[in-house]
Amino acid sequence: MQLQIIVTLSVLLLCDAKLPRFKPHSQPNELPSNPPHSQGLGQLQAQSKTEKTSRIIDQYRVRHRREIFDSKSYESSLTWAHSERLDQNGDVILRWVNTDSSITFRLEAKTRGYVGLGFNSARNMRGADLVVAWVDDRNGNAQVLDCFGSEHEDRAIADDVKNYELISGYQNDTHTTVEFRRQLDTCDKQDFVIGEDTTQILWALGPDGSDGQLPKHVKSGARPLRLLQPVSKPESIPLNHWDVRLTNLTIPHVMATLFWCKIFKVPELPKKHHIVGYEPLIDSRPIRNNIPVVDPTSQSPVHHMVLYECAEDDDKHLWNTWSEGDGYFGPNRPSAWATCATPIAAWAIGSQGEFLPENVGIPLGEKGGVSYYMLEVHYDNQALHNVLDSSGIRVHYTSSLREHDGALLGAGIGVSALHVIPPKQKQYRTVGICSTECTQETLPEDGVNIVSVLLHAHGTARKISLKHIRGTQELPRISEENFYDSHYQQSRMVPRGRKFMRGDTLITECTYDSTSRDKPILGGYSAKQEMCLSFILYYPRTELAGCYSMTPVKEFFETFGVKEFYGLNFMQVENIFLSSGSFENLPPQPLMELEAQKHNVNETGEQGMQGDDQGVGLMKELVIWEPPEFRNKSFMAHLNEMPWAEPLLTEQIEKTLYKGMHMTFCKKRDDTWGVPIQIQSYPNYTELINNETSEKSCHYKSVRLPSVTKTSAGATNKYSWLTILALCITLIVAR
Ligand SMILES: *[C@@H]1O[C@H](CO)[C@@H](O)[C@H](O)[C@H]1NC(C)=O
Ligand SMILES: *[C@@H]1O[C@H](CO)[C@@H](O)[C@H](O)[C@H]1NC(C)=O
Ligand SMILES: *[C@@H]1O[C@H](CO)[C@@H](O)[C@H](O)[C@H]1NC(C)=O
Ligand SMILES: *[C@@H]1O[C@H](CO)[C@@H](O)[C@H](O)[C@H]1NC(C)=O
Ligand SMILES: *[C@@H]1O[C@H](CO)[C@@H](O)[C@H](O)[C@H]1NC(C)=O
Ligand SMILES: *[C@@H]1O[C@H](CO)[C@@H](O)[C@H](O)[C@H]1NC(C)=O
């Protein structure tokens, strides 16, 4: 008997076992049977959309009630809410639409073999939820097979319970197209729960004709996506755009990290407009043999970009001159640029840009006269190439004003070398606080409405959450990511928004996995250093632009056992960190000096200049005097030599820095302080009890496969054949 047929039979058997069957006069049980009353219009519309989607699927399933499909009946009339290329060439396109409890996919893949799709928290197939689909070349029958990735090797194994339901499948001369659906949470330990967190979408294509046999794939990859995020697209009305970009900036190969600032003058606008979105403009040309070349395969060193609004227009002549110039190396920028403190757009690697929700716009050209903006571009040039760069941001704006004037607030941990993450830690947490005093002083009486949040950190961050404290009680998280991927930065809508009152506290918490590092990681702009920030979009706009904290200098060094340095007391060290009116900026260091410092490079095992080091250089130069056992060591050497593998030590440090004293900064748009810099203890509040961990009610939990091994000898054979076959599905390996 042909293997093919056995598989088909098994798949049919499995297919019927799990998902709720369609009954003509009853709703599928995932739909709310009574639409809740007193909902907002938006919600009602969302509701009816959801119902409509379900209805279309169900009607479709009635019309095509069979498990196999021939080539002519493959089109469902679903409206796909999302569509993404999973690979660079567009060989694999995933479209999907979801209801409150289920998700329907359409997968179009350039193969006449099988196509595999996987869901996981990591970029590999270990423990992943996998689904394999193909269309038989001989009879046009489509199949889906629910599998999971082995924990120990790159191998797919068939699930005990099948949770993917085939809707249709079709292949033409070049492509295999399948539609299938599943529950978001199948209550099956072998399946991934599709939720709000970032999901690594794995894919693999089998060789032609690999229907049913499923040999090793010929191509594979992974792409991070958040499947359930709402889409905010530009309006249909035409938008204007303003390109804010550098021109032909040469990035020298010695600079591993560089940040560059330039002033831009707003376009001439007779009245107030609204910024409604932005996109990155990436134009980086590697310089080879002194000639900049366009090479789409080379990776741009642009790592992130922030566009700030500048408050001061006093000396228009000076600002005009700046706007016509090339800009400045970050640490060398004129001190007046510190007034460019209100972020307007924050882009980071992996983002395709953002459009704001329909009721919010960020004012542009408000003053009627000129305004100035500062673009800050962070380059991460660890590959040490010479690059000619003209990157920037395309700002989309409109004259038809939206309901609310929005603004961005930066919060989290102030970027400095005082943000230390010890090496070899599985889960090390740090926090930045936006204090009660600050929000009390700067927010309006009615508070503000938070719309969306961009959570930002670098490569070792695994979780970021934005907590909301009112009085002594923690409220539900404003935003949270439990599978953070620094290569995928897209802001997150806050469902139904969040009212944030005067006097409330914000806490940005980051959790890092530094097990791959041998040396402590310090805060900074380089991709090898770390950050912990949230950019919060809210309305109505206020004077508050930035609200950060960091460990006070004295507490910081004492936590690491240092009592005194040669030459500088803690107060003087603190002043260096806080100098130039902005704690983000240390005293300027010209490029030449950085060049001269090259001899330091070996010391940390790093290569190339870290252009703006946020105090890392200072850490190397501070020499310990007290206590005597550390005397004559630089603080950096001391940090590097601490016994980090000792859990009692790192737990103590984590606790001291997390729950200890915090120096808080409350910065207004005009670069003045909303409240003076304060040193305060960690707020005292009752933590939110996380109900998520409690057992959810699972409707399908009891539905298992008919116990094939017990029914008949024939069935036993089918089942074991399937297992053997599935064990042979080799390698859906993400690079
Ligand atoms: C084959 O199917 C794919 C995906 O549906 C489609 O993009 C392509 O145009 C089709 N090719 C032909 C020749 O019809
Ligand atoms: C930037 O450099 C490119 C390539 O060298 C050149 O073609 C272009 O004219 C330059 N643009 C400006 C504004 O100098
Ligand atoms: C840097 O390291 C290399 C080899 O690792 C060594 O040969 C060189 O002397 C070192 N330079 C300094 C300044 O320490
Ligand atoms: C520290 O350095 C000073 C000057 O270089 C030296 O006199 C002193 O003996 C050193 N102390 C220790 C403990 O190594
Ligand atoms: C925190 O607040 C609780 C209840 O208000 C109080 O019992 C406790 O002593 C406080 N802790 C600190 C460290 O202030
Ligand atoms: C947690 O669950 C309890 C009982 O199940 C419920 O009363 C409470 O409101 C829930 N809390 C939150 C924050 O959802």
Report on this model:
By secondary structure, the protein is an alpha+beta fold. 17% of the residues lie in helices and 35% in strands. The protein has a seven-stranded mixed sheet. A six-stranded antiparallel sheet has the order 7-6-5-4-10-11, covered by helices on one side. Strands 12, 15, 21, 22, 25 and 26 form a six-stranded mixed sheet that branches. Strand 8 and strand 9 (176-183) form a beta hairpin. The model is unreliable at 1-49, 60-73, 580-607 and 699-735 (pLDDT under 50). Residues 247-248, 292 line the site of one 2-acetamido-2-deoxy-beta-D-glucopyranose.
Key phrases:
735 residues; Jelly Rolls; six-stranded antiparallel β-sheet; binds 2-acetamido-2-deoxy-beta-D-glucopyranose; disordered C terminus; Immunoglobulin-like; seven-stranded mixed β-sheet; alpha+beta; disordered N terminus; 3 domains
Distance between the termini: 37 Å
Mean pLDDT: 78
CATH class categorisation of the largest domain: Mainly Beta
Shape: globular
**What structural class do the secondary elements suggest?**
alpha+beta
CATH topology of the largest domain: Jelly Rolls
Count of DSSP helices?
12
Helix content: 10-25%
- In quaternary terms, these chains amount to single chain
- Strand coverage percent: 25-35%
The domain tally reads 3
CATH architecture of the largest domain: Sandwich
The description of the largest β-sheet is:
7 strands, mixed
Major β-sheet strand ordering: 33-30-36-27-37-41-42
Give me the count of strands.
42
Low-confidence stretches: 1-49, 60-73, 580-607, 699-735
Attached small molecules: 2-acetamido-2-deoxy-beta-D-glucopyranose
Provide the gyration radius in Å. 28 Å
GO biological process, one term: norepinephrine biosynthetic process
Signal peptide: 1-17
Domain DOMON: 90-206
Keywords: Disulfide bond, Glycoprotein, Signal
